[in-house]
Amino acid sequence: MKKDFMILGIESTCDETSAALLKGGKEIVTNVIYSQIDEHKKYHGVVPELASRAHAAKIATVIHEALGDNPIDCVAFASGPGLPGGLMVGRVAAETLANFKKVPILGINHLEGHIFACDFEGTEVKNRLEFPLVALVVSGGHTELWYVKGYGEYKVLGKTRDDAAGEAFDKVAKLLGLAYPGGPQISKQALSGRRDAIHFPRPLMPGTWEFSFSGIKTAVSYYLRDHQNFNIPDVCASFEEAMVETLVTKTLLAAKKYKVRHIAIGGGVAANTLLRERMQQQAAQAGITAHFVERKLSSDNAAMIALAAYKKLEHAEKTGKPVKKNIDINPNMKVRSWD
Questions:
Q1: What InterPro entries does the record tag this protein with (predicted)?
Q2: Does 170 appear as a known binding residue?
Q3: Which run of H or E residues covers position 8?
Q4: Is 114 annotated as a binding residue?
């Protein structure tokens, strides 16, 4: 690929409409994000039909702003996993632009993007990831552990059986009457609460790398039912403590099991301050380096999609194998190795 190879990325899997330009696999030129929080706030969660309509209404404007007058060499879009309506909007926009500009198109696994986003420092790609590693993808819709041997070489160790971590934060926030999205609200309340005030369960599920957070949510619900004069900061602090302890413990146990010295944490919940502090601290004690995505790129964005596309094209060029275009949308897409 030429030095200034330009990829336009498109992200529309859930409730952010985003388009970004990545130059030479090294520099974010633009990264435009339209958030739908205001549309979904009164429902305390994402409403798929509203999300699809918002994507359709904003996608052209977002792409126009990100593209400007720049030439492009490829269009990449998130083809799954995600909400069907949003994925279709992204595909149609990507195909239209690729046909108009006469450039190739690639579909990208959204979850790969979250881990690759750990390579960004500001607007530059620093290739901070060191392999092999254990990756934790933790967001509103997904909580998964992977063993990663390199870019495009994955083994899924486990995922959530029910609620994702971010979903549990949102549901508990709703129980407490806090605003959406719930994660930041719970963390804010937790600052003035006691983390040992209430013991909520830690679903470590020994013998498996899977997660299950519906039980913690139910435990909070029962506690609120049985304690009329509950203290919101204490509930938030104790709940956050249980969630973070579960995520940190399972990730580090997987790192120990697979004998890796590096872990990567991406996704919206990776912005959680307590998770970042505990993971960094306990990883360091175990001689492991924790690579967190920067907060501003932890939520859904198109820069991570463009970077994943660049890595796929680079891999194809090095191996001489044709790149899989993967343009069929798949709401339940699983992560798979490239070869």
A1: ATPase_NBD, Gcp-like_dom, KAE1/TsaD, TsaD
A2: yes
A3: strand 6-11
A4: yes
